[in-house]
Amino acid sequence: MPEARREAEKEPFPGFAGFRDDPDAPFYASRMPRFRTAEATATEIVRRFSRVVFTVMRDATHRPLHMGRGDLLRWHLATFRTTFPHQAGRLRDESTTFQIRWREAGVVHKRPLQGSEVSQCAPELDAAFAAYNAEIEARRPEQRTVRVAVTAAAALYVEILRIHPFEDGNLRTAFPALQGALISLGAAPVDFEAAVAEHDEGLGWALRPDVENRSLEPFVEFLIHRMHQASAARGGSRMKLP
User: Fold this and answer.
1) 51-64, pLDDT tens digit by residue?
2) What is the CATH number of the domain that holds 69?
3) In Å, what is the CA distance from 210 to each residue of 145, 204, 214?
4) Total tally of structural domains belonging to the chain
5) Each residue of 87-140: pLDDT tens digit?
6) What is the Cβ-side half-sphere exposure of residue 41, based on CA atoms within 13 angstroms?
7) Distance from the Cα of residue 214 to its chain's centroid
8) Is the pLDDT at 78 greater than 70, yes or no?
9) Which of 25, 92, 124, 127 could form a disulfide with 21 if both were Cys (CB 3.0 to 4.6 A apart)?
10) Measured between alpha carbons, how far is 110 from 113 in angstroms, rounded to an integer?
């Protein structure tokens, strides 16, 4: 491997260099001998996660990716196998609750949301990927508008996070699916650097517990806005891959 590529692969994916779990999260600090501190654990996870994301993105630039539950398990395993080998690559076997937030009329609302029933995680993931793969089969990337492509990719990402199939690391495992889907469907990849709050609030609208007010549109708008910002900053070019 050329030296320049080796150096590039050491770089974290934009927006994740400072990503840390909550102090009480299972993946906050490892008991593995190699990682005696929470910071060492986080550094290792970010490094491995970034490698997964960049690999998926490179693959998607060569051809549209058909993705499935097996890919999700593989990405989770690749990200956490050195720090949490017993949980890595395995769907959770207990119920889980996570917090969402959204902004409405200038007020931030926070609510707990329960992930899917354990027995439903696998079939619901399969259904989410089936819907994405059907869109891949339906038309070529150049035949979609940006909004259609982003909406399909966002729907897959949101559904994975709603199901919350892992004990922890759900966002880091759903993120490669989002990037791979965006590129495969003909849109551009995105990052959430300096926009984590906007990401979470847009996601909150798509996951609201009051289903009648649930909407994917704020998150889609957020993704399109990020693409436009990134394109302008790079003079119209796409995100550079290491």
Assistant:
1) 999 999 999 999 99
2) 1.10.3290.10
3) 30, 11, 7
4) 1
5) 999 999 999 999 999 999 999 999 999 999 999 999 999 999 999 999 999 999
6) 20
7) 20
8) yes
9) 25
10) 10
Domain assignment present for residue 140? The answer is yes
Residue 173: burial class (beta carbons within 10 Å; 0-12, 13-18, 19+): buried
Could you tell me how far CA 173 lies from the centroid of its own chain? Answer: 6
Token code pair at residue 92: 């959770």
Structure tokens given for 27: 């993946």
Q: What is the DSSP letter of 114?
A: E
- The confidence band for 162, taking pLDDT boundaries of 50, 70 and 90, is very high
Tens-digit pLDDT profile for residues 7-23: 345 678 887 766 666 66
Query: Residue 25 corresponds to which tokens in the numbers above?
Result: 């999260």
Q: Is residue 74 part of a domain?
A: yes
Residue type, 105: A
Residue 137 dihedral angles phi and psi, to the nearest 5° = -75, -25
In a domain, 3, yes or no: no
| pLDDT at residue 29 in the model | 57
Flag whether 4 is in a domain.
no
3-state secondary structure 106-121: CEEEEEEEECCCHHHH
Q: At 87, list the tokens.
A: 């949980």
Decide if 156 contacts 68 (C-beta within 8 A).
no
Residue numbers of the domain that contains 82: 13-233
